[in-house]
Amino acid sequence: MSSGPEAPDPLWYRKAIFYELSVKSFFDSNADGVGDFPGLTEKLEYLVDLGVDCLWLLPFYRSPLKDDGYDIEDYYNVHPDYGSLEDFKTFLAGAHRRGLKVIADLILNHVSDQCPWFQEARVNPKSPKRDWFVWSDTDRKYSGTRVIFLDTERSNWTWDPVAGQYFWHRFYSHQPDLNYDNPAVREEVKNVVRFWLKLGLDGFRCDAVPYLFEREGTSCENLPETHAFLKELRAMVDQEFPGRVLLAEANQWPSDVKAYFGQEDEFQMAFNFPLMPRIFMALRKEDRAAVVDIIQQTLPIPK
């Protein structure tokens, strides 16, 4: 007697081959010079033939594209150059029929300055959206925080003449950071996650997760409040969408990255970022020492 279909493996991601791709540069279905979801759907058999298990999509949301889509204007829509929400649904259904899983980038830390949330916040100091962002009358708060993009940004604060205040941004000055101290922000982020997981997405690569909260006298990275929210997010996903996966993009030293696994209650996976530049360094110098050093610093994967 047959025991029925095999139950899904909740640890599928541990042995999966992930294939990163940008929708806009993969396959163009309508000859407008930009890849799109119909084009990606056409090439699903090709991806299956490659032997991959999961597709990781770079940002495809509506965006001004000042930072290749990592500046999101609308979290609930597909960029029109790449097709429609219906085109996304068709692609996802086609991927699942072929046994492929799909995860997508989700930018948690910041939005585009063209996002309606920020536009409402800057023009109306009494709007509830005002507190969705981090404002200050001075650019000297959180002075112990490094500037990540030193080649383009001189400060983590930018003056907004419309708002009459400075707003906080860990990345580009057109990407205001969300204020995670506001419960409404945390709930909206969870609603975004719910929206795409309800459509069938298999998980997210969560962008820039170390920078969600700010506290005076700290580096504003890897704070306890950040880990507390990530546990909250993981608990929601596990309860409402069991079997989905969260991948941490935490560009930190291995000793700090390990904390993003939590006690199996934050991320299931995390990148080993410091290894990447050391691979290139080793090739350029024809010396493996840098790779060996960072591997020796990498802690065992939590079981």
TrEMBL record:
Keywords: Kinase, Transferase. It holds the Pfam family Alpha-amylase. InterPro entries: GH (IPR017853), GH13_cat_dom (IPR006047), O16G_dom_2 (IPR045857). GO terms for molecular function: kinase activity. Transmembrane segments: none annotated. SMART domains: Aamy. GO terms for biological process: carbohydrate metabolic process. The keyword Cell inner membrane does not apply. Residues 20-303 form the Glycosyl hydrolase family 13 catalytic domain. The keyword Nucleus does not apply. This is Trehalose synthase/probable maltokinase. It comes from mine drainage metagenome.
